[in-house]
Specification:
With 113 residues, this protein is mainly alpha-helical. It contains seven helices and no strands. It is elongated. The chain starts with a helix and ends with a helix. The relative contact order is 0.11.
Length: 113
C-alpha cells in the first residue's frame, strides 16, 4: 500500500516523519495517518509533494510489486541524468547523436592502453 511505501522510502532516505512532513509542506499527523494506512486515499497533490521530496516518481509510490528498491535507484539516477542533459540544452531530437558519442566513449574505454 502507498503508506507503507512512503514510510519505507522515507526511512531509506534518512528522513524522520517530522522532516518529511515539513519538506512536503503537509502536517505531521496527516503524513502519519497516510503511512499507517489510516488515510488510504491521500490527494494526488499530497502524493506528488511527497514523491518530489523523496526524489521518486509518482509511479514508484503507486505501483504494486516488490522491486521497489531497484526501481527507486534506477529512476533517481536516470532522472538526474536526464535533468542534467536538459539543463545543458540537449533536445530530445538530439539524443540519437549523443547515443553515438556514448557508444564511442564506451568502445574507447574498453580498448587496451
Amino acid at each position: 500500500m502507498i503508506g507503507e511505501k512512503i514510510a519505507e522510502i522515507r526511512k531509506q532516505r534518512g528522513y524522520s516523519l517530522t522532516e518529511l512532513a515539513e519538506l512536503a509542506n503537509i502536517s505531521k499527523s496527516y503524513l502519519s495517518n497516510i503511512e499507517r494506512n489510516l488515510n488510504k486515499n491521500p490527494s494526488l497533490k499530497v502524493v506528488i509533494k511527497i514523491a518530489k521530496v523523496l526524489k521518486v516518481d509518482l509511479l514508484t509510490l503507486l505501483k504494486n510489486g516488490s522491486d521497489l528498491e531497484t526501481h527507486i535507484y534506477i529512476e533517481k539516477e536516470w532522472v538526474e541524468f536526464v535533468n542534467e542533459l536538459k539543463e545543458m540544452g540537449v533536445e530530445k531530437e538530439q539524443l540519437e547523436q549523443y547515443k553515438t558519442l556514448i557508444e564511442f566513449i564506451r568502445w574507447k574505454n574498453q580498448q587496451p592502453e
